Amino acid sequence: MSQNQVSTLRKGLLVLESVKQSQGITLAELMKELQLSKSTAFRLLTTLEEMNYIYKIQTQYFFNPKMFSEGLEKRSIKDWASLRSIYQVAQNLQMSTYLGKVDGTDLVMTQVLHPPFRQSADEEIGNRSKVHLSALGKVILAHLGDHNLEDLLDKMSLERATENTFQDSQLFRYHLKAIHQDGYAFDDEERNVGIRCVAVPVFRNKEVIAALAIAAPAEQISRSNIKHIATKLVVGSKTVTKEIDTLDI
Hints:
Blueprint: H1 3-22, E1 25-26, H2 27-34, H3 38-50, E2 54-57, E3 60-63, H4 85-93, E4 96-103, E5 106-113, E6 128-130, H5 135-142, H6 146-155, H7 169-182, E7 185-188, E8 195-204, E9 207-217, H8 226-247
Antiparallel strand pairs: 1-3, 2-3, 4-5, 4-9, 5-6, 7-8, 8-9
Helix pairs in contact: 1-3, 2-3, 4-8, 5-7
């Protein structure tokens, strides 16, 4: 191996280590940290990305732990808390941000971020609530296939959490149809008094697999800005799907 090849390999390994340690780094930040030219840094990042050692979300590069897990050919990453795209959603909207999945008749939190959005609220990951109580759960229900939805609705009991909780099953079905048409769900203090929530579905291969949402005090989420929030969440949802595909979760 020539001296130039050794030097390139060393730089590539330094780039990989920097991406791993940074939890998200831009081209400019990497250039400054490692004192690399723009062309060299871009070439190394592009090569590592093509080899799937790292992946890119908007302007930031992230380490791909999948490439270094044991039994790579048989395993997929199950830890949804490793997703980094949700951080960008939280920073953009500046509100507490959530990612959740349905398990039976429960909604399970898989990622939670609160200000200043630098690390996940690990103590809340895994928390459960009844699926009908939140925008997260409702938007997933609304995008299920008819057979799966009816099967799940038959097993649900619309337990009340606040006076705004849906308890009429027929009205709840109409509500889900409206959510499906709108493409987002709104939780108007249905689980917690004083807290409103907006959620959009997360799709993979055209099937809903999760939901992405923000929550805030009621005065911060008015009916006039719900659609604006939902539009930003849809963009975030697509980015989450791209990361899920990259990590093969």
